[in-house]
Amino acid sequence: xxxxxxxxxxxxxxxxxxxxxxxxxxxxxxxxxxxxxxxxxxxxxxxxxxxxxxxxxxxxxxxxxxxxxxxxxxxxxxxxxxxxxxxxxxxxxxxxxxxxxxxxxx
Amino acid sequence: xxxxxxxxxxxxxxxxxxxxxxxxxxxxxxxxxxxxxxxxxxxxxxxxxxxxxxxxxxxxxxxxxxxxxxxxxxxxxxxxxxxxxxxxxxxxxxxxxxxxxxxxxxxxxxxxxxxxxxxxxxxxxxxxxxxxxxxxxxxxxxxxxxxxxxxxxxxx
Lengths: 106, 156
Description:
The complex is a heterodimer of chains A (106) and B (156).
Chain A: H1 2-12, H2 14-25, H3 30-34, H4 41-53, E1 57-62, E2 65-70, H5 78-104
Antiparallel strand pairs in A: 1-2
Chain B: E1 5-8, E2 15-22, H1 26-34, H2 36-43, E3 46-50, E4 57-63, E5 69-80, E6 84-91, E7 99-109, E8 112-120, H3 124-155
Helix pairs in contact in B: 1-2
């Protein structure tokens, strides 16, 4: 439960969500991540630290550089990730149902 | 609130089950998978090809808010009206391996039917990546909205 609360706190912040979105597309160095924001590198580094602590980001040392990856695999809260997927299909199937109900009227 | 669509993804397995009950008779539900014009409407995609028979294939195309086109395709292995569809699914140029899909249709009562969909992935990691896509897209959209808001502030 401790981890779960931390994860929600972590993704409640818009800058941290933006960092996840960036890193989910491509593994990035802290410098490259900071380059996407107007905030100071220190501020971004603090956000990265929080995301790493709650295991949403994973560090990978490549030579002298550290790369950050999006890492939801250690989460026990896989349901958090399933929900948007479920909503995607729920939305499609709701449309299917509505369309077919309409069709039957003709 | 009642959850009409259910998703089961057991930890450490390389499959996902999606089940859904429809307030539609079985033949009407199945029709939504047969007619390209109807598939287009509910999948929110353009249907470039849909050959509903064994060894047939399909190809869909979607356009994202940025105008980028994404194509999906697959091959139909089994197509038994009102019973089942077995097919592969592939997102073109995505780096995701092909997945296998089993769709089973069943009648519950005169006006109700059910669809059970099983997706099988190449690996557990691939499945988890696929599950994360809507999540990542969701936060990416939140990011875009954030950028728009910031842009508006700058412009004022």
